[in-house]
Structures are given as structure tokens and as C-alpha cells.
Amino acid sequence: MGLGEIKYFSSIGSTNDEALAWANKGAPDFSVVISDEQTMGRGRMDRPWFTPAGTALAFSLILRPTTAEKPFLSRFVGLAALSICKPLQTFGLNPQIKWPNDILLSNRKIAGVLIELVWAGDDIKCVVIGIGLNVLKRAVPDTDVLRFPGTSLESALKREVQREEVLRDILGAFVSLRPELGSDDLMNQWGTALAFRGKQVRVEMGAGKTVVGRLEGILSDGSLRVRDDNNKSVTVQFGDVSLRPFTGILINR
Ligand code: ATP
Ligand code: BTN
Q1: For residue 153, how far is its CA from the centre of ligand 1 (angstroms)?
Q2: What is the rounded distance in angstroms from the CA atom of residue 213 to the CA atom of residue 57?
Q3: Which domain does 216 fall in, by range?
Q4: What pTM was estimated for this model as a whole?
Q5: Looking at ligand 1, which atom is closest to the CA of residue 43?
Q6: Ligand 1 atom index nearest CA of 132
Q7: Where are the alpha helices (DSSP H) in the chain?
Q8: How far apart are the C-alpha atoms of 114 and 44, rounded to whole Å?
């Protein structure tokens, strides 16, 4: 599958908002909205995502899922996360995926993925995949606004890298992985890259419900499996869910 069209902005509210609007107006498959700066960047649950000018990658892919892909839409977040991991691995780094949507380097968040869907009646018309990656140190907000510690490629590599190079490699990885969406191999790669795998974690499920247990892996639909302290297997679905290491001095809130 080839690339669609590209829209570049020097500043925008959120590339996901622009991508959702463009998707509704007929953007072709694999179109990209990219901006140097975002003034209203969003994470999950409308939490803010900061993208200061000249420091980061912030872009959104518009996909028109094929009939073969539609049963596997919940895997796109893993596919996107793995596509971010590949270029980081090429730099010799060891990225991990904090389920469901964050990429960590040494337990610090370097990137996030925000998936949004465009519906036509009860059919999915488009999947918008927003990706934010901190390239320079200046991309990382002050600790007091973070729910989890942050980092950047510059901090990890101790040198600056060209954003274009990283963008090209993420898109390249995405294009290579996309045909694997329905495969066991994709799930194995995703499972292997999970942060805190085999470790004690705390999952905050919203409405005051918390599960504590050992992170076992992910299921075929991308949901998380945790073995709780009563040795019961608990499946955690996507949603307003926050995963944290059970003990950790790194957590702000
Ligand atoms: P959880 O860890 O509970 O899954 P989260 O803390 O990662 O969720 P998200 O909605 O996934 O929350 O991401 C938004 C959060 O990311 C913000 O609340 C903020 O703490 C953090 N954040 C915002 N901008 C950046 C950035 N450029 N780099 C790192 N972290 C950021
Ligand atoms: C998260 O960690 O919750 C996801 C962060 C996703 C941020 C990206 S930056 C490009 C795109 N535009 C947005 O407003 N959000 C996503």
C-alpha cells in the first residue's frame, strides 16, 4: 500500500483534529497531517500533549481500513507503537511499550499514540493514528505537569537527531508492519515489547477500581492480561485505564 497525501503546518491546534476533519472530507488512505508545533495537542481522555515548536514529531495518519483489517482495528495501537520502537532500536535504544499507548525509554515516556475512529453509521470509515515523539530535550514538559516522567531522543542519545530521519523511519516501519496486522507475529512482537512484563503492576481502571498483579501479556484483541494476587487472571480492556509499576519512585501522580 502506498502513501496518500501530506498536509504540513508550522503550527496547529491538534494534528488529530485536522486529520479527523480531512478524513470526513475524503482524505485518501495513508494521508499524513504533520505540524511543527501543536497548541492544543491531546492525549487520551483529553489530557494535554505538549509539542513546542521545533522540538518534536507530531503527526497523524489517516487510514481507510480494508475489509481484512477491520476485525483487527484494536491492534492498530500496537502496530503504531511498534513502528515507533523500530527506529529507536536502530539507534541502539531499548524502547518498551507501556500498555496501551505509551513508549518508554528507561521507564520514561518518550512517545504516545492516540487512536480515534471516524464512523459512517455503524461502520468504521477511517482510523486516525496520532503520534507524538519527543526528539529534543526542549520537547519534554516540566515535571510538575507530567503524570509520568518524560524523556527525549536527545537525552537518550546525548546528541541531536534530525526529525525528518525519524519520521521517515517510523512511516517506513508502519508500512512494513501494516500487512501483518492480523498475524500472530505482530502480537508476539507487541507482547515482547511490553514494559513491566512479568512484573508486579497496578492497573487503575477508573471509578476507584484497581487491580494489582503480575503483568502476563496481551490477548489477541490487544487487551491486557494480569494475574492478580489471588492467582486469578484478569483481562483489562482499553479505556480509561492507567498502568503503573507496582512500586516505583518515578511516578508523579
Ligand atoms: P497513563 O500513563 O495513565 O496511561 P498517561 O499519563 O500516559 O496515561 P496519556 O493520556 O496517555 O496519559 O498522555 C497524556 C499525558 O502525557 C499528559 O497528562 C502528560 O502527563 C503527559 N505528556 C504531555 N506531553 C508530553 C510530552 N511531550 N512528553 C511526555 N509526556 C507528555
Ligand atoms: C498519549 O500519550 O495519550 C498520546 C499522545 C498523542 C499525541 C499525538 S501528537 C500528534 C497527535 N495530535 C494530537 O493532538 N495528539 C496526537
Answers
A1: 17
A2: 35
A3: 200-245
A4: 0.95
A5: 10
A6: 27
A7: 15-24, 76-90, 153-157, 163-177, 184-192
A8: 6
Domain end call among 192, 210, 228: 192
* Count of all residues that appear for the chain in the document: 253
List the residue whose alpha carbon is closest to atom 2 of ligand 2.
112
- What pLDDT score was predicted for residue 34? 98
Summarised one tens digit per residue, pLDDT across range 114-173 is 999 999 888 999 999 999 999 999 999 998 888 889 999 999 999 999 999 999 999 999
Ligand 1 centroid–CA 49 distance in Å is 6
Looking at the CA of residue 17, tell me the nearest atom of ligand 2. 14
Does the residue 250 lie in any domain?
no
Q: Which residue has the cell 498502568?
A: 243
Give the chain's mean pLDDT: 94
**Which set of grid coordinates corresponds to residue 106?**
528507561
Q: Which residues does 211 contact at the CB level (< 8 Å), separation at least 6?
A: 202, 203, 205, 226, 228, 234, 236
Confidence class of residue 1 from pLDDT cuts 50, 70 and 90? low
- Please indicate whether residue 44, judged by its CB atom, sits closer than 6 Å to ligand 1: yes
Count of CB atoms situated within 10 Å of the CB of 78 = 26
Distances (CA, A) of 170 to 7, 71, 130, 143, 165: 17, 24, 12, 27, 9
Residue with C-alpha cell 495518519? 61
Please state, in angstroms and rounded to a whole number, the distance separating the CA atoms of residues 43 and 40. 10
78 and 131: one domain?
A: yes
150 CB near ligand 1 (under 6 Å): yes
* 101 Cβ closer than 6 Å to some ligand 2 atom: yes
